[in-house]
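Record format v2
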Amino acid sequence: MISPLPDAQEGAKSAILIEARHISQAYHKDSAVDLQVLDDVSLSLHSGEIVGLLGRSGSGKSTLLRILAGLLTPTSGDVLWQGKPLEGPDPGIAMVFQSFALFPWMTVEENVALGLEAKGIHGAERDRRVENAIDLIGLGGYENAWPKELSGGMQQRVGLARALVVQPDLLLMDEPFSALDVLTAENLRTDLVELWSENKLPVQGMLVVTHNIEEAVLICDRIMIFSSNPGRIAHILSVPFAHPRNREDSAFRQFVDHIYALMTQRAPIVSEADITSGQGQAAQPEPIFKALPQVSITMMIGMMEALAAPPLNGRADLPMLAEKLQLELDDLFPLGESLELLGLAELEDGDILLTNEGVHFVLSDLDERKAIMGHALIHYVPLVKTIRSVLDERPTHTANAERFRDELEVSMSPDYARQTLQTVVGWARFAELFDFDEEGDRFFLEDDGVE
Amino acid sequence: MTATKPETSFRPQASFSSLSVRHLNSLDALLLVCVVGVAILVGNSVRHMLAPLSSPTMAPLHLNVAYLPGYALRTTLRMFAALALSLVFTFSYATLAAKNRRAEQVLIPLLDVLQSVPILGFLTFTVTFFLGLFPGRVLGAEFAAIFTIFTSQAWNLALGMYQSLKNVPDELEEAARCFGLTSWQKFWRLEVPCAVPSLVWNSMMSMAGGWFMVVYSETITVGNTHIVLPGIGSYVGVAITQRNIWAVLAAIVAMLLVILAYDQIVFRPLASWATRFRLEAGPSTASVPEPWILRTLRHTRLLSLLGDMILGVARKLGTLPLGGRFRPSSQQGQPVAARWLWWSVWAVILLAALEQAGTYASAFYTSRQILHVFMLGCITLLRVVSMVCLASIIWVPMGVWLGLDSARARRAQLVVQYCAAFPANLFFPIFVVGIIRFGLVPDIWLTPLMILGAQWYILFNVIGGTSSFPGALLEVGRNFNVSGMLWWRKIMLPGIIPYYLTGVMAASGGAWNAAVASEMAQWGDITLKAHGIGSYIAQATVEGSTSRVALGVVIMSLFVMAMNWVVWRPLSEYAYRRLKFS
């Protein structure tokens, strides 16, 4: 099958639907330091194309989507919507939410009609348009159902119909399929792409936020890959395939592999986006403590054991591993990077391989594993080292967690600070480096008979 | 994809044009008669309300049982009026607090204080105020009574609605903004629906306090003003002065029927309707059968059409394009100068109030007097604590036993709800007769009266906690043969403590309130008095001594607040952190 209306698409290239120019978003704190969520992001979306924002959680892609929806004002930079500055939600822009965001006290039909009623469209016109949207999206017969009676997939269809009924020019989708199970997501994705290809959707362009690499390649014409902390556009890729796309196709697989490689390499290839982001990085001093993802020790051990076992023998292709271990991108990358941080594995060109230390860990018994982990934590995680040395110095061998939380919050949001401390406590408990008393909110050394 | 079209749709099934007389059924006729009957009675009562205070319609109450239904209706009307007033107050107060940061900083702590003030202490001031507002009319006394009920409901409702408004889910808020709802539309289509479950639940829960207050406030004596408003409470009051125990019993039966009807006709349908507004997704817990009244309404054409029309009009009103649409603003904190100004204004007001209170206090009270009232407060505190302990010893094991079996728990909770809603002060005369008959010491034997109504909160919450105790944990206990004290200490008690604390907090609050009504009791011309701050306030009210009432109320409020801040809050926060499942 050929790409949908190639001429129209080519011709429309010139018409820019929405444009973001040098968007920066800072999280404002009481203290003097502002935390950057988005750093100088520019993008434009032409009519006739689907653009994907691909990145991990914390890369600010959802924030960018809300800025484009007019729900947030960026700290600096501006958004041009059809050539004019965007000031607040616009009737030409509709949004689909990750959690569906359906009103539980309205029936399917009432939910869909919400946007029309807000616009003041009532009576026969409202009924006609609601019915059209409901039929288009495959909800016929469900008009009088309550949202809670529907499966997740049907609920998201309601979300789609609600967005489409106002006939927006631009459809924004915030991880629209990530709350659905694999089969349902596939089904809904296919339906959506089909409607788009057959020009049945009343929209001119779509912007999809996702953390699923395959999903981005399946749907989008262009993909913007975000780097995290602060969010920047690291790469822009054009997807060269026509709809419908076949995920088993070898070119498709290669493209997915390529994205994995881009997202795991330590020194990214030079592209236009990188030059600007590189400069930004130089301006900001590297913080002493880095945010740690929510990765449990058992997941790390499980991953290492799976890697060491025969079919893989210490090295694996990330997309393949993701499929084998049933891991989402948001689980896989933090896991791989945590292992890399601790010197137990390395990420390279979309592959993960165990280091000698990692192999040694897998072959050891529990006590030895604890020793290896303790060693790695002290050496590679400055926060653990600091906490431990403070505890060693103090005669009481206790230290308030508050102080470390404050130190972390200099360079990260309170949420990340909390998460980082949680992760550190989990790891340190396994290695028996120190313990944490939640009630007293303090760290302590276990040997000292404190509880 | 397999979900079927729901059978339980609330859509109109007949259009208005198709309505004709032959479509009306016998149920319609019956209900129509009921509606007309109620309307006539309501009109009649309102006419009485507007009458002058000393007109012939204010003729002395009759203890003849035939008058009782009329009195019951009057009492119920007062409840409805108070509920309506509370709702109006709640909508404005909670909305203001939730929408305006500055208002919030003042209104919410104020609510906390108001919740701690013994409601019956208000009586002196409200009666004086409203009688002054409508001199010589029954209306003033009616307003005073209604306001008393209002004070027992409004704070709870407002706090609940405020919390709901503050907890509107982010994604729904974003969806509403994204689709361009105006502030008016957003309020009625998003924020109010979010608050409906809390509003319904809180008005159900504050019924108990409401009935108590209405019964108490129908016979008001403030100084030389003695007001009797026709109703169940005043019926009992007359029965007490005439020493007619049978009339008291008749009033109890009448009250029981009124509460039953109120629950069946108003709250069952409301509660069932409110489940639609619950935000937590997931399968609805144990399909609740549709209340019979809703089923009946659905089978009547006229009334269900009327209901649909009302809903339709409400929806139209809710979608009026009033107010502005959302515009994002770069979140800047308010300028430091403005914040300073704001807080210094409040500091000045506070200082002025303190100064006023100080001069008032030094003019009217001696330190001995204050110390005396404080000691009385300690006595009442002792009463409250001992009664809460006693009720716990009785009801915790009982509640656990009832809660362990789900069928038993459901039935028990229904009964307990009725018990809690029943105004305990109707039972007071029976106790008082007992105390007089057997010559018991009032200081000890009047004490249980204060927990009579409040104890049910403990039982209710313990049953609730036990029935939501995870079954798997109970099975672990059985698996390891954990029994006896170990079972209580390690398994059951920690699991129900968060619920138990909720119950105890409500019970102790209720007990403080009831102290005013229970520490002083009458039978004929005999007055029984227990020492305590409650009887001090009651006595001062009867004597019309405003300054002593004020002193009593302030000190009692301080006791209640101190209890809340020093004991209950820290305890329940701890329990919530450590002992709550999930």
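Chain B has three domains: 22-54+64-278, 292-321, 364-581.
Strands of chain B lie at 219-222, 225-228, 520-523, 526-529.
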